[in-house]
Amino acid sequence: MSAYRGVRIVDFSQGVAGPMAAMLLGDFEAEVVKVEPPGGDRLKHQPGYLAFNRNKRVVELDLDAAEGLAAAKTLIAGADVAIFDAAPGRLEALGLDSATLTATFPALVHAWMPPYGTTGRWSGLPAHHSLLMGLTSAAFRQGAYADQPIHLVLPIAWYAQAVLGAAAIGAALLERSRSGRGQAVTVSGLHGVAEVMNPCNVASVPPMPRGTPPGANPRYRLYQCADGEWFFLGTLFTGFYRKAFAVLGLEDAFEALEDDQLAARDLLEGMFLTRTRDEWLEAMAANDVPCGPVRRREAWFASQAVADGGLRLTLEDPQRGAVAMPAPPAELSMTPASVRSLPRLGGALPAWEPRVLAARPSKGPPLAGVKVLNLGTVIAGAYAGTLLANLGAEVIKIEGPEADPFRSDGAQFVGYNRGVRALGLNLREPGARDLFLDLARQADVVIDNYRLGVRGRLGIDYPALKAVNPRIISCSINAYGTKGPRAPLPGFDPLLQAEGGMMAGQGGEGDPVLHTIAVNDVATASVVAMSVIAALNARERTGEGQEILTSLMAQSLLFQLGELVTYEGRPPNDPGGPDCVGVRALHRYYACADGWIGLVCETEAEAARLGQVLAVEMGGAPLSEPRDGELAMRVAAALTGRQRGEVLEALLTAGVAAAPVLRGTEAYDDPWLAENGFLESWSHGRLGPALSSRGYADFSRTPSGFTRPTPDIGQHSAEILRDWGVAEGRIADLLAQGAVFAGDGLGGIAKVSQGASVA
Questions:
Q1: DSSP state, residue 122
Q2: 193, 132 in Cβ contact below 8 A?
Q3: Using an 8 Å Cβ cutoff, are 257 and 304 in contact?
């Protein structure tokens, strides 16, 4: 049995995000019926379709015909979840909007996953990831050599939207188990961007400058070697960086070069050019220095590391033969996910009986009452707690006196750690482990991202937690999974970007490109939240907790899911390139006199209308023209002297999909983003005003959101222990022993003298 067995889902969505959300639920054995329009899903000929719609029965219904619409409503009547991705207004016209359906079917979870926002001028555009990234300033966040937006070849915001959608639907189902009532859930493309980009501005802290394609920090950067091959040096933390200098024989120069990053970069660039990549990787690995080779995604998917992790599956398709795709991204020990089939086309519609549930009193957000102890650090582990807090869980961020190594007053840390309380706990001190296990007796979830084996050495691995609380859900993250020779190795997001093919894919035929967004980290955070919610749903039926295991490696596959589906004769993926502005002449970013726009033409008719608006000759095959060819040059020349607003008005009037590409500062004041509630203002007690993401899903009946600012280290230690029933005398003793510590109100750790009172 898996987490969502018995849950009935009817999926009306197309493309990436909605189908992938339903896929993730179907992997946990939800029964999913995919309803497509006549002619099928708009991406049915793309390889990713086979993965996004695995474990589903696929039928065609014409919702514009009375018979098809009636059949759809009959399906919905017996469903637990209905998923849609239509543009605003379309569902209302069909009578399939959330207000109508949840009034008619009170137990239904109505999930709407539009590709942009829910309202306003740009929300009705055809679905194009490049336009979404431009509208939110994400295209200007990616590191570049020139002052221009960058087209990302991976649809990472839609992948995030999919995982958030599965998490939010799961949260609504969990809440329904308390209340007996469904509700409307909205997870838009903007929510997906918010999760991957983590937009955050702290007024008192200067923003970081835009990065460069190889990386701006010499300790965390791409380097080329004597054989022309590249690797990523992942020494984000000082201890690892010192080890790298030892390998290079530069120990004596470490302190001086720490103060001069440009000199360090130039020196390291020169030194790494003196030996081959394999020689450097061998030397670095021998000294426990995290680094990773740049490879193609196809080689990564076929690698022994992926095989050791059980992350490559092969299924048989009658037309294509053997089809390989990534496996589910998390292992649940009691209710595992599985891939049982490719999309199954046709067949009779299921005769589902309508759900009738007794309504019960319930209040609070979807995860109200869920208690989480979060030992996670840096991004993946820490951010998972923030995502759960945004859905209403009580999350305690636990740090030792060395602090989360990512901790700072910068916008990234502030954004990744909002909404939680902070407990200072030194697990190496006597008494701290006993206290942690006492807290675990009351907790629902424990999250960590320790290296393999550390949990056991600390005495807080899953068997230890289960012994004190059989209902506990323990989720552990590492870099390379728990199997194979790589499992104990340290790892960081860019190492998986490098070896996983993301950097080579974005760089195309040019040099590899570091994604400024920590793709694998933020992906892992969302997968942890989704998996924890699945385990909470399973616990409602079994009464038992379980262990969840996931890795950055798993997400390096999940966030390339469509690109990694493999079979004989599959079409190639769109390549990136140096400072990539798009994939073709009529699917790219262009500069106007006062800013940039993105435009996309999918048909010859749209291309002809673009030519009329710009007075540009389109040629014989405009849709296949390269992004930097003659047609692109003609379009660029026609746009250079024109005002952005005037051009967009003309293109939209002509029926050409186009939108502005915003810079970061423009996004803070953009009326469309404000209309859709993309950001919200709040205040940090020490740092002052801040602006960051409002949330990652919206719920009609049980709204959620952030209720706390980002905490300083140990800020709430005594408060938390009191709330969790720890006696005052024990709190004082733990503080005096150093097993527990508190914040000093200035961002540091308070000193507690013997016999001091508990604040």
A1: G
A2: yes
A3: no
Please report the beta strands in 494-600, taking only residues with DSSP state E, as ranges in sequence order: 546-551, 582-584, 587-592, 595-600
**Bridging pattern class, strands 371-374 and 582-584:** unpaired
CA nearest neighbour of 432 among 726, 712, 711, 750: 726
Burial 340-369 (b: 16+ CB within 10 A, else e): eebbbeeeebeebeebeeeeeeeeebbbbe
- At CA 149, angle to CA 148 and CA 151, rounded to 5? 135
Tell whether pTM > 0.85.
yes
Helix (H) or strand (E) holding 662: none
Question: Which sign, positive or negative, has the C-alpha torsion 666, 667, 668, 669?
Answer: positive
CB 475 within 8 A of CB 546: no
CA distance 498 to 516: 13
Is 481 within 8 Å of 487 (Cβ atoms)? yes
543: left (phi over 0), alpha (psi -120 to 50) or beta: left
User: Cα(230)–Cα(232) distance, rounded to whole angstroms?
Assistant: 7
Structure tokens at 231: 């690797």
Sequence-distant (≥ 6) Cβ neighbours of residue 451 within 8 angstroms: 478, 488, 489, 490
Q: In this structure, what token pair is assigned to residue 185?
A: 């859930």
Token duo for residue 526: 């969302």
Which residues, in sequence order, are bridge partners of residue 595? 592
Helix (H) / strand (E) containing 688: strand 688-693
Give the total residue count for the chain. Answer: 759
Domains within the chain, CATH numbers bracketed: 585-669 (3.30.1540.10)
Helix (H, G, I), strand (E, B) or coil at 27: helix
> Which parts of the chain have pLDDT scores under 70?
753-759
Amino acid at 637: A
CB 587 within 8 A of CB 625: no
Q: Which residues contact 759 (CB under 8 A, 6 or more apart)?
A: 718, 742, 750
Q: Which helix (H) or strand (E) holds 9?
A: strand 8-11
Helices 189-197 and 156-179 pack at an angle, to 10 degrees, of: 110
Contact 5, 30 (CB under 8 A): yes
- The secondary structure element, H or E, covering residue 744 is none
- 8 A C-beta contact, residue 188 and residue 13: no
In this prediction, residue 751 carries a pLDDT of: 86
Which tens digits make up the pLDDT trace of 736-758? 999 999 999 999 999 875 444 44
Question: Do 458 and 386 contact (CB within 8 A), yes or no?
Answer: no
Report the distance separating Cα 531 and Cα 194, nearest Å. 20
The phi and psi torsions of 600 (rounded to 5 degrees) equal -145, 125
Residue 659: beta bridge partners? 598
Q: How far is CA 265 from CA 143, 223, 254, 299, 629, in A?
A: 17, 9, 12, 29, 35
The pLDDT value recorded for residue 755 is 47
Instruction: Quickly tell me which residue has 């002297």 as its tokens.
Output: 641
Contact 229, 299 (CB under 8 A): no
314 pairs with which residues across the strands? 324
CA distance readout (Å), 679 to 437, 526, 671: 38, 19, 11
Rounded to whole angstroms, the Cα distance separating 610 from 692 reads 36
